[in-house]
Amino acid sequence: MMEEFIEREEERTEKQHSQFEEKHSCENCLLSGTPHCRLLNMESCDKCFVDKLSEDDQKLVMEDICTVAAAMPYGGMEKLMYDDGCSLCADDEPNAADGGYVRFSIAHLHPTASEERPKGSKAYKRDTSIVVPVQLPVCKKCRKRIQLINFLPLCLGICIAAIVFAVVSTRSVFETLTKSGRIIPLLVALIGVLAGIVIANIVKVRLTNSAANKVFLEPGRIRSISELMNEGWFVVPSSELEMPYTFSKTPMKHGLLTCEDQEELIEEIIHWNDR
Predict the structure, then answer these.
(1) What is each CA distance from 97 to 87, 134, 141, 147, 249, in whole angstroms?
(2) Does the global pTM surpass 0.85?
């Protein structure tokens, strides 16, 4: 039985590689036919940016992919992406990952690019750090808690401000307030807006505090990501008003580190120059 399973897996992998090569064969691209191309995992050559670059820039792309591969943990992102448990659960025994995927970005300092020597060109600009996407499985409860924190206070604040404006705009209320001064209706409306902001912030703080012991609200606290941070990776920060999480029902199918067999590809890339 085990031999049959291994044989089927080898056939499946070979078929996938064959299909990939059919869509990714370009004479003008240095990545064509390499593990770098498969790790980049673009949908097709037509939708890939690499073959449109100069040869020097294509070499820089290969170098950057090598840098990412060398900094990746064993098994790459694939090992993290297909975990059965929820990545955001703070409990020792996480819930089943039935809520889709959470996405955010992490970055690693570039070993050869700096502010003094960024390298690259107008077509392929290099930054002082390399950014890669992360997508991890989550449960419905964690997803709901985070979405409540992100959206409920905002909606509540907008609703309160809208209600105050609607009340002040009615003829009877407006005329009554105007008798005390022409500026009074505007002041009441502004007080309503401020009240909405204050209430929204209070609700957000309480929701955050109640979820803090149940959900990893900061990506850096996620167990797998904290291990990466020990290897020099860091979470790309978002705005102060929101957490750096977005959610999707299905994982990304294309882009860097979205492919299968990452363990094998990373090993090939790391030893590519040893051939």
Answers:
(1) 8, 16, 10, 16, 11
(2) no
Q: What is the pLDDT of residues 164-181, one digit of tens each?
A: 989 988 988 888 888 888
Q: What does the buried/exposed string (b/e) look like for 96-111 if buried means 16 or more CB atoms within 10 Å of the residue's CB?
A: ebebbbbbbebbbebe
Report the C-alpha gap between 160 and 198 in whole angstroms: 11
List pLDDT tens digits, range 132-162.
889 999 999 999 999 999 889 989 999 998 9
Tokens 């090939």 belong to residue: 268
Which residues have CB under 8 Å from 89's CB, separation 6+? 95, 139, 142, 214, 215, 216
Q: Considering only CA atoms, which of 244, 230, 247 is closest in space to residue 136?
A: 247
Sorting pLDDT into bands at 50, 70 and 90, what band is 236?
A: confident
How far apart CA 19 and CA 25 sit, in angstroms, is: 11
Distance, CA of 114 to chain centre: 24
Greater model confidence, 5 or 22: 22
d(CA 33, CA 23): 11
Residue 103 phi/psi, 5-degree rounding, is: -125, 145
Question: Among 33-37, 66-70, 118-122, 271-275, which stretch is predicted with the lowest mean pLDDT?
Answer: 118-122
| Residue whose entry in the numeric block shows the structure tokens 């690259």 | 120
Alpha helices in the chain (DSSP H): 2-23, 35-40, 55-71, 76-81, 140-169, 171-179, 184-211, 223-229, 262-270
129: region left, alpha or beta (phi > 0 left; psi from -120 to 50 alpha): beta
Mean of all residue pLDDT scores within the chain: 83
